[in-house]
Batch of 4 targets.
Target 1
Amino acid sequence: SSPSAKIHDPKRHHSHIKSIPTLANLEHIESFPSTSWKNTYSPAFAGELDHLGEIELYNMSKRFLQRYPDLFTKKYNSVAYPIRTTEVSRTSRSGNAFGYGLWEGTGELGPCNYETFFLYSVAKKNDSLLRFWENCPNFTKVEEDPKTIEQSTLYLKSISDALVTSVKAILGIGSSQDDWQVTIDDVMLLYTACSFDVAISGDTKFCAAFSDRDILQLEYASDLEDYYVRGPGSPVGTNVSCPLLIDFFAVMDKAIASPFAPEEESFMRFAHAETILPFLTYLGVIQDSHGMMWDTPWEEIENRTYRTSLFSPFASNVAFLLYSCENSTKFRVKLLRNEVEMMFPGCDEMYCPYDKLKMIYQEKLKCNYNEICGNFPAVCPQVENLPSKDVHVTVLTVVIVGVTCLISGIVGTFLAMRFYDARQKKAKYGRLELDASDHDL
């Protein structure tokens, strides 16, 4: 198949959401010889959710609504349907697009009966649940250590000359001094432009500069970096996501404690690819039996299981579905990754008994985020000889007023969802299973 046909998977290049490019140096492409391309990505919208991303989230919510209608029978209220996003415009706007699809036409606002709904977030510097990497000094050390990306760097160095030669041949560029002196930086820039253009507008003009092998090699270089930053090659980079797993089980524990009168019907979280990748690795869903090195044989590269283009495409998502069985005395959980059901690692049933699932993850649920990250409380020096009287203390009371904004977004959608009383569906588990072929993203 042509490069453009494959580009929807490999062309992540660290942009896992249909958002407006933030790379200002795309403008440099306008100066490339024999290039008529004009940069249409306005800096004013850099990092925002693209309209295609809104459509993708809206359609996804409609699919969830169709497949799991019992989850959304209640009239909307913020207690039954909490929605948390990160403090980033595009994730909040994604949550908004998803919620609009769920409750479209169920409210009383305006001619279209719009239902307003509440999204909340935590300041980035305090968000250890959805932006756990940002509040983790030990992860920052790993991310900034040149040795972390050494494998990716060595691999790019090993293929640079061949990539440049391949691109020049495809574009018909000669080798004289008067011809365009293509560099590896130019190649990477074309690759980035290909990524954004094909994802947002479907334009494949830059993708045509690459052969199939070129694209797969550049994908592997990108995967090598993720593998050692937040994948199986980075214990800190994956263990740092443990607060999210603890929170998933806390939501389910709360639901199980009151199965006949649950407060929450579903709990939705909207975050980032940087949230999803380590979380899936921590779950044991992402593994690679061969390991990944710069000099891995090409056959193993082609057949590897660690592909971020599959694990974390645009609008990637993870869902835990909790089922009650036998008059709500037994509970089972099903895992969805990108809307496709799969078994939890270590469980041999699609509908994993809840007690067994907790046993599988019991050690990981004991994790200590602060120890993983090196977040230890500062030791205050002892202050001696304080005056015993005539001391004036000023107490400052700070009132923080929250401003509600209609903003939304997503890179990764996290749903910890409840699905009660399967018996009422008059079906056994098999009748409730999703057909993976029907709902690939």
Target 2
Amino acid sequence: MTYLLSAAWHGFYPGYYGCFLSMAFFVSTSRKLRRVVRPLFLGSSAIKLFYDCLTTVCSLLLINFAAIQLCVLSAERVYELYRYFYGLPHIICLILFVFCPKPKTKRA
């Protein structure tokens, strides 16, 4: 809801909605993935550092991909952007979101 409100706040260009809705999708996928994958990398400080660096780079790439839509604004150019990248950021996140196992909840 916050991302949709942010898009409306900025204006009614398709690029705003593409950016903020993409970010909502990327964030929800990364939160789900982090709950499942991060505990696997907490064994040693070197492995944790590798995980932290890898996820930072992935986050920056996704943020930059989404932010390009803020610059192009028009639906045609947003579509052109998606075609240029073959929609891979969204496809990869969709696959990760769907096939990532449900995070285990701790019982008190």
Target 3
Amino acid sequence: MNNNVVNYFNSISISQGIMSERSDKAMHLGSCFSPDSNYVIAGSQDGHLHIWAVDTGNKIAVLEGNHPSPIGCVAFNPKYMMLASSCTNAAFWIPNLEELQVQS
């Protein structure tokens, strides 16, 4: 994160995209790609996780967790559908498969 912008680079096509999330302070905020590389998940200083689609750069979701401080670590489990985020506490994000089937 530089100048309040999350930058990502595609090393195959050498393209650059910009997705922004404002930060009032210079601080380390965690981010990662989803295992399929279709999404970027980034923590924020207000304790939320923001999710962008890589192909469009559009923000598609904001996850509200129980993080009382900035999220400094975000990691996706490459084998299972689980995301972990942490600040002074940790959260494990596991999708509710029943809700996913209803929305489909």
Target 4
Amino acid sequence: MVSLAQLSKLGTVNINSHGQITINGQVMAGLTVNNVSGLSQLMGSAVAAHRDQSPALSMQSDLFNLLNTGAGINSTAVLGAGANMVSGLMMNSGKTSPLDQMGSLDLNMLNLNGGIDPVVSLLSPTTSFDGSTSSAFGHSGMSSSAPIRSSNSKLNTMQIRCKFGQLGPGKTQFNSPHGFCLGIDEDIIVTDTNNHRIQVFEKTGEFKYQFGIPGREEGQLWYPRKVAVIRSSGKFVVCDRGNERSRMQIFTKNGHFIKKIAIRYVDIVAGLAITHQGHIVAVDSVSPTVFRISENGDLLKWFDCSDYMREPSDIAISGKEYFVCDFKGHCVVVFDEEGHFIRRIGCENITCFPNGIDISDAGDILVGDSHGNRFHVAVFQREGSLLSEFECPYVKVSRCCGLKITSEGYIVTLAKNNHHVLVLNTLYIM
């Protein structure tokens, strides 16, 4: 006897219109549907009310008690004994859905014989239970990890601790800044893109210094987009255009030019991060690809992630895992350092057009977006379950770029189209 939860560890499980069990769209020979008495008790009147409309439900009862006749899965646990897993599944309406409205159950990338606890997730409500629609990303077998927001959940309010910047060429003014990072002492380092410079601030918003001379030559800055800091030395890694689509340059912590790194293989750098070994990691948004580069400029590793995402917008690294925001895919895609896909985190109704990501000291994943002209942050556990959400209702923002969390738990973001930096107090405890 095997449960739907255990089968789901192999991929996306569906019951098609003929009552056959499929995993990732393929019919599983030897697995059949038993009778439905337990299902009727589990779902109550909701099942009875929909039997006439659902061929899959009207065939036989107890879809969750699946007979194993040779699939090689050995377990005595059945989902019927843990009915709370199903009764707790909530759609956006906050009502328990009958099975023909649930969508696919997805517990990808979990070990069959134990390990990580399964996280039950739902695909888009438009995904039919018989699996007749295409996947959320337009690629076969792809599914979003969709954490479930409680019907009575309330977004926590973020207070504005500090806000600085306005349109202009002077100190503490910006012109369409595209990126920022936190320095060794948690200074806020901003790529002031259309002013062709880098500005450095205390996290209280006090101006410290700036560097950069406009130009395409080595040591000059031409529309800088992203910046990162090598922790061991405090050196700045800056990505700008130069004479090509993308250029990478290294500066001292005081802003003095050291060297240029040729990255002709990168079109537009959407995210920039530094590994614990001091390697530079850049992600290309045009042809979704991740590149790992040494400080000397050697290309150490690269991998194509276009099969798993649509448009990268930011990247964070924790240990050997790379967390890449997928702006148009409305989620975070996680890879190991060799480029192997691990899992997805988030979904459209929680991480809509994500454009910033950071990882707390406790290992929680913070994902930011500015959809609807408000800055919103979703906090996830490492495996993808939703912990909490925050938003700032006090200021309208347009196209926030990046998210960083300070040692005190303050969240920093950059509103590109508003030309200012926000430091927010979330009361988030790491």
